[in-house]
Amino acid sequence: MATEKEKMIAERFYIATDPQLTAERTAARKLCDEFNRTTGDELEKRHEILNRLFHGNMDMTKPAFIEPPLTVDYGYNVTMGPGCYMNFNCCFLDCAPIKIGKDVLMGPMVQLYPPAHPLDPSVRDGLRGPEYARSITIGDNVWIGGGAIILGGVTVGEGATIGAGSVVTKDVEPWTLVAGNPAHLIRRIEKGYKSPHEKP
C-alpha cells in the first residue's frame, strides 16, 4: 500500500496530517528559519542551507540568490537551475514537484501553489479530509513579477514574463507577457524587444 508521501508525489489524494509528512514539513521549517536568520554577508552559509533544504536539487555551480525570508513546505520537491534570483518573501508549497529552470527571476512575494482541496466540502472535511497537488514547471529565463501567484498544473514557457500581481491558472506560452487575474496574454515578445518604459 502506498504511503501518504508516495500518494502526494504521485499527485493523488493524500492526508497532509500524516505523521511522516508532518515531520518532514517541520524539518523544512527549521531549515527555512535557519536560512531566514542569515545576513547578506553569509552567502556561503546561505548556499549550504539551501542545498540541504532542497536536498541537493539546486545547481551549486551558480547557486540561486534568494533573499530571506523564504517559505517552503518540504524542499525536496523543488529543483532549481543555475543563476536564479528570488526576492523577499517567496513561498513554494512544494507538495508536488516544482521545477525551476535557469536564470529565472522572481519579484517579492511570488507564490507557487501546487496543492489544492476538493470542491465538495463534505469530501474536503476541514483538516480531516484529503488534498492533492499538481506540479509546476517554470522554463529558463522567465521573469515573474512581485506578488504573482502560480497554481498547480501550470507550465510557464521559456522566456515568458508574468506581470506583478497576476494569478496564473493555465499554461503560459514561451516568449509571451501575461498579466491579470486570471492571467491572460498581453503580447508576444520578440528577441530584442524593449518596453516603452525602458530607456534606450
From TrEMBL:
Q: Domain Maltose/galactoside acetyltransferase: where?
A: 5-57
Q: Which InterPro entries match?
A: Hexapep, Hexapep_transf_CS, Hexapeptide_acetyltransf, Mac_dom, Trimer_LpxA-like_sf
Per its UniProt entry, which superkingdom is the organism in? Eukaryota
UniProt keyword list: Transferase
State the family named in the UniProt similarity comment for this chain. Belongs to the transferase hexapeptide repeat family.
Q: List the protein's name.
A: Maltose/galactoside acetyltransferase domain-containing protein
Organism name: Coccomyxa subellipsoidea
The organism's taxonomic lineage, starting at the top: Eukaryota, Viridiplantae, Chlorophyta, core chlorophytes, Trebouxiophyceae
